[in-house]
Amino acid sequence: QVQLVESGGGLVQPGGSLRLSCAASGFPFRFYPMSWYRQAPGKERELVASITSTGGITNYAAFVKGRFTISRDNVKNTVLLQMNSLKPEDTGVYYCRAQYGQAFWGQGTQVTVSS
Q1: Could you report the per-residue pLDDT of 34-57, keeping only the tens digit for each?
Q2: Contact between residue 85 and residue 15 where contact means Cβ atoms under 8 Å apart
Q3: At a CB cut-off of 8 Å and minimum separation 6, what does 76 contact?
Q4: Which of 30, 43, 94, 99 is the most exposed place for a label (fewest CB within 10 A)?
């Protein structure tokens, strides 16, 4: 079955960096686009970044453009989110998403940006 396991979250000070990782299994990862979403307390889940199957095209939400970078490794079946210049408003649970017929989600990893 499809499994997505996120890791790398934690507590970081404003201006700091984190790298999130999502390990995928149970489907032909290299053929499918992947994305990262986040959900802040009391808010709806929102798209952060997406990447095509080959990694050739990436898209970012305006609020992270220039600070976050999405990438993927089609040998290790992982998708990464490098987050730099973090702000308190980046706090939330970050989810990995695969669109394989239907949408599949990981369990999420908590990111807290606070001094």
Answers
A1: 999 999 999 999 999 999 999 999
A2: yes
A3: 23
A4: 43
Please give the structure tokens belonging to residue 27: 């489907």
Residue indicated by tokens 């973090």:
86
Cβ atoms of 30 and 78 closer than 8 Å: no
Backbone phi and psi for residue 96, each to the nearest 5 degrees, phi listed first: -95, 140
Distance, C-alpha 29 to centroid of its chain:
15
Residues 6+ apart with CB under 8 A from 32: 53, 98, 99, 100
The residues facing 4 across adjacent strands are: 24
Query: Contact, 34 vs 50, CB < 8 A?
Result: yes
The distance from CA 76 to its chain's CA centroid, rounded to whole angstroms, is: 16
Cβ contact 72:89 at 8 Å: no
Compute the average pLDDT of residues 102-107: 94
